[in-house]
Design a protein that fits this description.
This protein is of the alpha+beta class and about 230 residues long. It folds into two domains: about 35 residues; about 180 residues, Glutaredoxin. Helix content is about 35%, strand content about 20%. It contains four helices and ten strands, in the order H-E-E-E-E-E-H-E-H-E-E-E-E-H. The strands form three sheets. Strands 7-6-5-9-10 form a five-stranded mixed sheet, with helices on one face. It is globular. Belongs to the glutathione peroxidase family.
Protein backbone atom coordinates (compact mmCIF):
# COMPACT_ATOMS: atom_id res chain seq x y z
CA UNK A 1 0.00 0.00 0.00
CA UNK A 2 2.79 2.40 0.95
CA UNK A 3 4.59 1.53 -2.29
CA UNK A 4 1.42 2.24 -4.32
CA UNK A 5 0.98 5.56 -2.55
CA UNK A 6 4.57 6.49 -3.32
CA UNK A 7 4.11 5.59 -6.99
CA UNK A 8 0.95 7.69 -7.16
CA UNK A 9 2.71 10.66 -5.54
CA UNK A 10 5.59 10.40 -8.02
CA UNK A 11 3.15 10.25 -10.95
CA UNK A 12 1.21 13.26 -9.67
CA UNK A 13 4.43 15.23 -9.18
CA UNK A 14 5.62 14.35 -12.69
CA UNK A 15 2.26 15.30 -14.20
CA UNK A 16 2.27 18.60 -12.30
CA UNK A 17 5.78 19.36 -13.55
CA UNK A 18 4.75 18.62 -17.14
CA UNK A 19 1.71 20.88 -16.90
CA UNK A 20 3.74 23.69 -15.35
CA UNK A 21 6.42 23.35 -18.04
CA UNK A 22 3.70 23.60 -20.67
CA UNK A 23 2.30 26.75 -19.07
CA UNK A 24 5.74 28.36 -18.89
CA UNK A 25 6.47 27.44 -22.51
CA UNK A 26 3.10 28.81 -23.64
CA UNK A 27 3.67 32.10 -21.79
CA UNK A 28 7.14 32.41 -23.31
CA UNK A 29 5.80 31.87 -26.83
CA UNK A 30 3.04 34.43 -26.30
CA UNK A 31 5.57 36.96 -24.99
CA UNK A 32 7.78 36.42 -28.03
CA UNK A 33 4.81 36.80 -30.36
CA UNK A 34 3.84 40.03 -28.62
CA UNK A 35 7.36 41.37 -29.02
CA UNK A 36 7.28 40.65 -32.75
CA UNK A 37 4.14 42.78 -33.03
CA UNK A 38 5.91 45.83 -31.64
CA UNK A 39 5.65 49.22 -33.31
CA UNK A 40 8.94 48.80 -35.17
CA UNK A 41 11.78 46.36 -35.80
CA UNK A 42 15.35 47.37 -35.00
CA UNK A 43 18.22 46.31 -37.23
CA UNK A 44 21.14 45.35 -35.00
CA UNK A 45 24.50 43.94 -36.20
CA UNK A 46 26.56 41.32 -34.41
CA UNK A 47 28.39 43.90 -32.26
CA UNK A 48 25.09 45.04 -30.75
CA UNK A 49 25.04 48.58 -32.08
CA UNK A 50 22.36 49.88 -34.46
CA UNK A 51 23.24 49.56 -38.13
CA UNK A 52 21.69 50.36 -41.49
CA UNK A 53 20.24 47.23 -43.01
CA UNK A 54 22.38 44.35 -41.85
CA UNK A 55 22.62 42.07 -38.85
CA UNK A 56 20.17 40.48 -36.46
CA UNK A 57 16.60 41.62 -36.09
CA UNK A 58 15.25 42.74 -32.72
CA UNK A 59 11.88 44.20 -31.77
CA UNK A 60 12.12 47.86 -30.84
CA UNK A 61 11.19 49.04 -27.40
CA UNK A 62 7.61 50.15 -26.79
CA UNK A 63 7.24 53.63 -28.20
CA UNK A 64 5.07 54.57 -25.22
CA UNK A 65 7.96 54.02 -22.81
CA UNK A 66 10.40 56.73 -21.82
CA UNK A 67 12.88 56.61 -24.69
CA UNK A 68 14.32 60.11 -24.31
CA UNK A 69 14.06 62.62 -27.16
CA UNK A 70 11.64 61.69 -29.94
CA UNK A 71 13.04 60.66 -33.31
CA UNK A 72 13.81 63.63 -35.52
CA UNK A 73 13.76 63.13 -39.28
CA UNK A 74 17.19 64.27 -40.56
CA UNK A 75 15.68 64.96 -43.99
CA UNK A 76 12.76 67.13 -42.87
CA UNK A 77 12.22 70.03 -45.31
CA UNK A 78 15.24 68.92 -47.35
CA UNK A 79 15.40 67.54 -50.90
CA UNK A 80 14.93 63.79 -50.90
CA UNK A 81 18.20 62.02 -51.80
CA UNK A 82 17.90 60.61 -55.29
CA UNK A 83 18.46 56.91 -55.87
CA UNK A 84 18.29 54.37 -58.66
CA UNK A 85 17.30 50.83 -57.70
CA UNK A 86 16.03 47.78 -59.53
CA UNK A 87 12.53 46.44 -59.25
CA UNK A 88 11.80 42.71 -59.08
CA UNK A 89 11.87 42.46 -62.88
CA UNK A 90 15.34 44.01 -63.07
CA UNK A 91 14.12 47.38 -64.36
CA UNK A 92 15.99 50.40 -62.99
CA UNK A 93 13.81 52.98 -61.26
CA UNK A 94 14.99 56.45 -60.17
CA UNK A 95 13.26 58.59 -57.58
CA UNK A 96 13.96 61.70 -59.66
CA UNK A 97 11.71 60.36 -62.43
CA UNK A 98 8.68 61.00 -60.21
CA UNK A 99 9.24 64.74 -59.79
CA UNK A 100 5.92 66.53 -60.09
CA UNK A 101 4.23 63.76 -58.11
CA UNK A 102 3.86 63.25 -54.39
CA UNK A 103 5.92 60.18 -53.49
CA UNK A 104 5.88 57.89 -50.47
CA UNK A 105 9.14 56.00 -49.98
CA UNK A 106 8.47 53.14 -47.58
CA UNK A 107 11.39 51.03 -46.34
CA UNK A 108 10.11 47.61 -45.29
CA UNK A 109 11.02 43.90 -45.18
CA UNK A 110 9.24 40.57 -45.50
CA UNK A 111 10.14 39.63 -41.90
CA UNK A 112 8.92 42.94 -40.42
CA UNK A 113 5.62 42.38 -38.56
CA UNK A 114 4.65 46.09 -38.34
CA UNK A 115 5.32 46.42 -42.09
CA UNK A 116 2.71 43.74 -42.76
CA UNK A 117 0.16 45.88 -40.95
CA UNK A 118 0.95 49.01 -42.96
CA UNK A 119 1.17 47.45 -46.43
CA UNK A 120 -2.61 46.93 -46.91
CA UNK A 121 -3.13 50.59 -45.95
CA UNK A 122 -0.64 51.69 -48.59
CA UNK A 123 -2.45 49.55 -51.15
CA UNK A 124 -5.78 51.23 -50.41
CA UNK A 125 -4.28 54.71 -50.23
CA UNK A 126 -2.48 54.15 -53.53
CA UNK A 127 -5.80 53.32 -55.17
CA UNK A 128 -7.45 56.29 -53.52
CA UNK A 129 -4.89 58.99 -54.33
CA UNK A 130 -2.97 57.84 -57.42
CA UNK A 131 -5.28 59.83 -59.70
CA UNK A 132 -4.29 62.96 -57.74
CA UNK A 133 -0.61 62.37 -58.44
CA UNK A 134 0.49 59.99 -55.68
CA UNK A 135 3.13 57.30 -56.18
CA UNK A 136 4.26 54.84 -53.54
CA UNK A 137 7.63 53.09 -53.71
CA UNK A 138 8.17 50.13 -51.41
CA UNK A 139 11.91 49.63 -50.90
CA UNK A 140 12.73 46.18 -49.53
CA UNK A 141 15.43 45.90 -46.87
CA UNK A 142 15.62 42.12 -47.20
CA UNK A 143 19.15 40.74 -47.49
CA UNK A 144 20.38 39.93 -51.00
CA UNK A 145 23.36 37.62 -51.46
CA UNK A 146 25.55 39.49 -53.95
CA UNK A 147 28.28 36.83 -53.98
CA UNK A 148 26.12 33.85 -54.91
CA UNK A 149 23.98 34.26 -58.01
CA UNK A 150 21.77 31.27 -57.21
CA UNK A 151 21.09 32.46 -53.68
CA UNK A 152 20.52 35.99 -54.97
CA UNK A 153 17.76 34.70 -57.22
CA UNK A 154 16.24 32.80 -54.31
CA UNK A 155 16.31 35.96 -52.19
CA UNK A 156 14.52 37.91 -54.91
CA UNK A 157 12.01 35.10 -55.39
CA UNK A 158 11.18 35.20 -51.69
CA UNK A 159 10.45 38.92 -51.92
CA UNK A 160 8.42 38.40 -55.09
CA UNK A 161 6.29 35.71 -53.46
CA UNK A 162 5.64 38.00 -50.50
CA UNK A 163 4.62 40.85 -52.81
CA UNK A 164 2.19 38.55 -54.60
CA UNK A 165 0.78 37.20 -51.34
CA UNK A 166 0.23 40.72 -49.98
CA UNK A 167 -1.26 41.97 -53.29
CA UNK A 168 1.10 44.95 -53.34
CA UNK A 169 -0.17 47.20 -56.14
CA UNK A 170 2.67 49.71 -56.21
CA UNK A 171 6.32 49.49 -57.36
CA UNK A 172 8.59 47.40 -55.15
CA UNK A 173 12.33 48.06 -55.31
CA UNK A 174 15.14 46.03 -53.76
CA UNK A 175 18.51 46.56 -52.06
CA UNK A 176 17.64 49.26 -49.51
CA UNK A 177 21.04 48.73 -47.88
CA UNK A 178 22.81 50.37 -50.83
CA UNK A 179 21.01 53.68 -50.21
CA UNK A 180 20.61 53.52 -46.42
CA UNK A 181 23.22 56.12 -45.46
CA UNK A 182 21.79 59.21 -47.22
CA UNK A 183 18.35 58.28 -45.88
CA UNK A 184 19.45 58.44 -42.26
CA UNK A 185 20.78 54.93 -41.72
CA UNK A 186 17.44 53.08 -41.62
CA UNK A 187 17.98 51.75 -38.10
CA UNK A 188 14.39 50.53 -37.80
CA UNK A 189 11.56 49.31 -40.00
CA UNK A 190 9.23 50.45 -41.25
CA UNK A 191 10.67 53.88 -42.00
CA UNK A 192 8.56 55.99 -44.31
CA UNK A 193 9.22 59.32 -46.03
CA UNK A 194 6.61 61.57 -47.63
CA UNK A 195 7.90 63.71 -50.48
CA UNK A 196 6.05 66.62 -52.09
CA UNK A 197 5.76 67.42 -55.78
CA UNK A 198 8.96 69.47 -55.76
CA UNK A 199 10.99 66.61 -54.29
CA UNK A 200 11.16 67.87 -50.69
CA UNK A 201 10.62 65.64 -47.67
CA UNK A 202 7.61 67.08 -45.83
CA UNK A 203 7.02 64.29 -43.28
CA UNK A 204 8.41 60.98 -42.09
CA UNK A 205 7.48 58.22 -39.67
CA UNK A 206 9.66 55.71 -37.82
CA UNK A 207 7.93 52.47 -36.92
CA UNK A 208 4.27 51.62 -37.22
CA UNK A 209 2.13 54.70 -37.81
CA UNK A 210 -1.66 54.82 -37.81
CA UNK A 211 -3.53 54.79 -41.10
CA UNK A 212 -4.89 58.25 -40.30
CA UNK A 213 -1.37 59.63 -39.81
CA UNK A 214 -0.17 58.08 -43.05
CA UNK A 215 -3.13 59.50 -44.95
CA UNK A 216 -2.61 62.95 -43.41
CA UNK A 217 1.03 62.90 -44.50
CA UNK A 218 0.01 61.86 -48.02
CA UNK A 219 -2.41 64.78 -48.21
CA UNK A 220 0.36 67.07 -46.99
CA UNK A 221 2.69 65.82 -49.72
CA UNK A 222 0.00 66.16 -52.39
CA UNK A 223 -0.79 69.71 -51.38
CA UNK A 224 2.80 70.92 -51.11
CA UNK A 225 5.28 71.80 -53.85
CA UNK A 226 4.59 73.01 -57.35
CA UNK A 227 3.77 70.39 -59.94
CA UNK A 228 6.00 70.50 -62.99
Amino acid sequence: MRRNSLVILVMVAALTAMVWAGVVNYRHRKQEQAKMQGPQMLLVPDNGTPSSAAGAVQPAADSSADQGPAWVDPLQDKPAPNFTLEDLQGKKVSLSSFKGKAVVVDFWATWCAPCKIEIPWFEKLHDQYSAQGLEILGVSADDLDKDNKTQNQKDKQQISEFVTKMHMNYPVLIDADSIAKPWGGLDALPTTFFIDRSGKVVAATLGLASKDEIEANIKKALGSGAAS
